[in-house]
Specification:
Blueprint (H helix, E strand, L loop, with lengths): L3 H15 L14 E2 L16 E3 L2 E3 L3 E3 L8 H17 L2 E3 L13 H4 L10 E6 L9 H11 L3 E5 L2 H6 L10 H11 L4 E4 L7 H9 L4 E3 L8 H9 L7 H4 L7 H7 L8 E5 L5 H9 L2 E6 L4 H6 L1 H21 L5 H4 L6 E2 L2
Parallel strand pairs: 4-5, 4-11, 5-6, 6-7, 7-8, 8-9, 9-10, 10-11
Antiparallel strand pairs: 1-12, 2-3
Helix pairs in contact: 1-8, 2-13, 11-13
The protein binds flavin mononucleotide (FMN).
Flavin mononucleotide (FMN) binds next to helix 1 and strand 7.
């Protein structure tokens, strides 16, 4: 059966593979310099990067961010490889938007990753804007149940929808609908962007809607505006998506902007994080969990082992940075901006 949503996801993956500049590689974290300790007074072997999130233990604060799922075999295999790797390495994982499973029940199996990750921290995913297009609490609960998820990510992607030829652009009155979903769901609702960031005004609205978890998913990494521009050019020869390819709030800037809310909301960092050092910087800027998406796509198309190699590299980098700052535990990092050298 022809399935436009799954076709679109496959197109996205092809565009990301063929156009390296869809990853903007802005390296915004590189402008942040950390305090090196010549005398860390610590054995590297004693550095403990473990943490917990939603009561579940994590080997270190890594999230494989929401990517895919659908009726295509490749998306099912990607999710299985990611889930197996997350389980074996003790990190968190999100599935991609589950909207497709409501029109194509054969897509459900690709999201049923609890089978491959019985104890891992897992997140379901829907586009928040769908609650303005007929979705309600029953859809949200079903998305959570199919995954066996510990929480539901609702993604906010107004830029992507605005560039997408067939985009859903009615964002009017959405905060109230999100509030109703959050109040009725059996697990926490977490809001995320997809690469353009979350502002202070957004955080105010989210808090008022009863949301306790925000993934800033800022700019600097994967650009959905650029990706959709490729698809747009099939319909139109303008370059709206290129004009907006670097639009948004850089991830470290978004984390800093939301610092005043840290005591009321748990922050997740994602968008352009590429190393364990970027993760350490994110924790220092107040994040409790650090997400990477596009760096996992190619490895996940190969095997769980390739995904595990990326996770192992990130953990090595994370531990090394902690050691070089004389920080033994992750709680020593959290919000500890004294570790940043200004100037
Ligand atoms: C292939 C692919 C598909 C994605 N699909 C979704 C999605 O369905 N839902 C979502 O919330 N984010 C989705 N994202 C966005 C990521 O979760 C993340 O916010 C974004 O890619 C920025 O992180 P990065 O720079 O590390 O890639 C997707 C990313 C990729 C690479």
């Amino acid at each position: 059966m022809s399935d436009p949503t799954s076709e679109r996801k496959i197109q996205h993956i092809r565009i990301i593979e063929e156009d390296a500049e869809t990853d903007r590689r802005k390296q915004y974290f590189d402008t942040i310099h950390l305090t090196h300790r010549a005398l860390p007074e610590l054995d590297l072997a004693d550095v403990d990067p473990s943490t917990t999130f939603l009561g579940k233990p994590l080997r270190f604060p890594l999230l494989i961010s929401s990517m895919t799922g659908g009726t295509h075999e490749v998306t099912r295999q990607v999710n299985r490889n990611l889930a197996e790797a997350a389980e074996r390495m003790g990190v968190a994982m999100g599935v991609g938007s589950q909207r497709v499973m409501f029109t194509h029940p054969d897509a459900r199996a690709s999201f049923a990753v609890r089978e491959w990750a019985p104890s891992a921290l897992l997140f379901a995913n829907l586009g928040a804007v769908q609650f303005n297009y007929g979705f309600d609490l029953t859809h949200a609960q079903e998305a959570v149940d199919v995954v066996g998820a510990d929480a539901l990510f609702l993604h906010l992607n107004p830029l992507q929808e605005a560039i997408q030829p067939e985009g859903d652009t009615n964002y009017g009155g959405l905060a109230a609908r999100i509030q109703a979903i959050a109040a009725g769901l059996t697990v926490p609702v977490m809001l995320k962007e997809v690469g353009a960031g979350v502002s202070r005004a957004d955080a105010e609205q989210m808090l008022a809607a009863g949301i306790g978890y925000i993934d800033v998913a800022g700019s600097g990494g994967l650009s959905w505006s650029r990706i959709e521009n490729h698809r747009r050019s099939q319909h139109d020869d303008d370059a709206l998506g290129l004009l907006f390819q670097d639009w948004g709030i850089p991830t470290p800037v978004a984390l800093r902007m939301l610092a005043p809310y840290r005591d009321r909301v748990t922050l997740i960092a994602s968008g352009g994080l590429r190393t364990g050092v970027d993760m350490v910087k994110s924790m220092i800027l107040g994040a409790s969990l650090c997400g990477l998406a596009s760096p996992f796509l190619r490895p996940a198309m190969e095997s769980a082992e390739r995904v595990m190699e990326v996770i192992e590299r990130l953990e090595r980098e994370f531990r090394t940075a902690m050691f070089l700052m004389g920080m033994r535990t992750v709680s020593d990092l959290f919000g500890n901006e004294d570790l940043i050298i200004e100037g």
